[in-house]
Write a structure and sequence with these properties.
This protein is of the alpha/beta class. Among the domains are: 9-141, Rossmann fold; 147-277, Transcription Regulator spoIIAA; 401-456, OB fold (Dihydrolipoamide Acetyltransferase, E2P), CATH 2.40.50. The protein has helices spanning 28-43, 67-86, 96-109, 125-134, 185-189, 197-209, 236-244, 264-272, 289-295, 301-312, 332-345, 372-396; strands spanning 19-24, 47-48, 57-62, 91-95, 115-117, 139-141, 167-171, 173-174, 193-194, 214-218, 251-255, 279-281, 318-325, 349-354, 401-409, 417-421, 426-429, 439-448, 451-456. Helix 7 (236-244) links the parallel strand 10 (214-218) and strand 11 (251-255). The structure holds iron/sulfur cluster.
Length: 459
């Protein structure tokens, strides 16, 4: 079902045959874009291929946040050249952040690609596939919407996901206005745009009627939602309350908030709205004020800690984070400051990365790049510390009874069921598959680095 009809140009009148495969790298926003592309292709008559080798349409949805996923995408494009030689009818499209940034380079290095589309042009996929099938002319569509205050026109219309999907991602905001000096996202995804509130509510109502119980709201700085709306401003916390009133929605999560944009009302929503889960992914990036300043993160360790502590005071809250080590100019002492902050704040878990030079960002051109071996060593130290903290916290929580949304059989161990606690930790336990989709109580019996093993409590 389509929530609002995306513009699909001439593709609508043509019946597609064959199959597609979408390969995705990167963040939840990319995962969500890929799902939209898949839904559009299905609507034109294509089916999903079991493997790349048998697909008639191949889309690479790329990521530019670090160098590694870009290298992987170019490497796969290299492999696809041979396939295109043998099966010239295969359509190959490149989408996502790398497509937005490096379209000309993709064309040069991979002339077998049929089209390259940017992050705001997802709705054009069916039309471009059709054009590629018919005309075989290379196409490039990279327009990013300007933010002119009236945001409504610049947000893509969307398909509603498949029925029976217990957990769904819902983008509520696109782009970013923060311009951190290490980050390419404001260039690849454009200026911050908030989705109209009524569109979001309509989509979530539709999702709930098709079985979704948990929604994760997506945005680059998701809690800035509504800031740039000209009329009828709806602050993020108010949006959470409106979503909580949608019948059938039992759990609301969001990612990723920007620390400085936390409001009292958002903290109150965590305390007072039962549907708003006790988990927050709060990106620290560095535990040193000088580094934060050079990253242009707009907060200090103190102001971050203040928000952190207020969140921590909410019963049952877990807090996770992102940390970059080896940012240009980071000294041993500055790295040790990050270690100290991690030790003091005790995040439940963290995504930790070595800084990756992103062409087109200010920090990429700075002279004082940290040598790779130093970055590796610091990263290993940080990971070891955080793993120890994660295990300690999870072990301390053994014996607690958690409210768990049962997601089905565990992929790791099919004899067990898998679910997430309210504070977003994985828990595996024995039980009947009929519990899938139910909210049950599970006692954690052992803490692990990945979550808990548990047993059904008296439900
Ligand atoms: S807040 Fe900073 S790190 Fe996050 S998307 Fe925006 S520029 Fe990138």
């Amino acid at each position: 079902m389509i929530l609002a009809q995306p513009k699909r140009e001439s593709a609508e009148s043509v019946d597609f045959n064959g199959s597609f495969k979408v390969v995705t790298w990167g963040c939840q926003m990319n995962v969500e874009d890929s799902e939209q592309m898949e839904l559009m292709l299905r609507a034109t008559g294509l089916t999903e291929a079991p493997s790349l080798d048998s697909a008639d349409v191949i889309l690479l949805n790329t990521c530019s946040v670090r160098k590694k996923p870009e290298d992987k995408a170019f490497s796969l494009l290299g492999e696809l050249r041979e396939m295109k030689d043998q099966r010239p009818d295969v359509v190959i499209g490149v989408c996502g952040c790398m497509a937005q940034l490096r379209a000309d380079e993709i064309r040069r290095r991979a002339p077998h690609v049929d089209f390259v589309i940017g992050t705001a042009q997802v709705a054009l996929v069916p039309a471009l596939v059709l054009e590629a099938k018919q005309a075989r002319n290379f196409q490039k569509r990279l327009e990013l919407p300007e933010r002119k205050g009236a945001i409504v026109a610049s947000v893509p219309e969307r398909y509603v996901g498949r029925a029976g999907k217990l957990k769904s991602f819902v983008p509520i905001q696109y782009g970013c206005d923060k311009f951190c000096t290490f980050c390419i996202v404001p260039t690849t995804r454009g200026r911050e745009r908030s989705r109209p509130t009524m569109d979001i509510l309509r989509e979530i109502t539709e999702l709930a009627s098709r079985g979704t119980k948990e929604v994760t709201l997506l945005g680059q700085t998701v809690n800035s939602y509504g800031k740039n709306m000209l009329e009828g401003k709806v602050p993020f916390a108010k949006l959470l309350r409106m979503i909580a009133a949608v019948p059938g929605i039992e759990r609301i999560r969001y990612t990723s908030p920007y620390p400085r944009d936390f409001t009292d009302d958002l903290l109150a929503a965590h305390r007072n709205v039962p549907q708003v889960m006790e988990h927050c992914h709060l990106p620290l990036q560095s535990g040193d004020d000088e580094v934060l300043k050079r990253m242009k993160r707009l907060y200090t360790v103190n102001s971050f800690s203040e928000i952190y502590n207020r969140l921590r005071s909410i019963p049952g809250m877990s807090i996770t984070t992102d940390i970059i080590i080896g940012f240009p100019g980071e000294t041993d002492d500055q790295f040790m400051n990050t270690m100290k902050v991690v030790e003091t704040l005790r995040f439940d878990s963290a995504f930790m990365f070595a800084y990756s030079q992103r062409p087109g960002t200010p920090a990429a051109n700075w002279d004082e790049q940290v040598p790779t071996d130093v970055k590796k060593k610091r990263l290993n130290e940080l990971i070891a510390l955080q793993n120890e903290i994660t295990l300690r916290i999870n072990t301390e929580q053994a014996g607690s009874v958690f409210e768990v949304l049962v997601e089905g059989v565990s992929e790791k161990d099919p004899s067990l069921l898998k679910g997430h606690t309210r504070h977003n930790k994985v828990i595996l336990f024995q039980g009947s598959g009929e519990l899938t989709g139910e909210v049950v109580h599970v006692e954690s019996i052992e803490g692990h680095p990945w979550g808990f093993s548990g047993r059904l409590a008296n439900n």
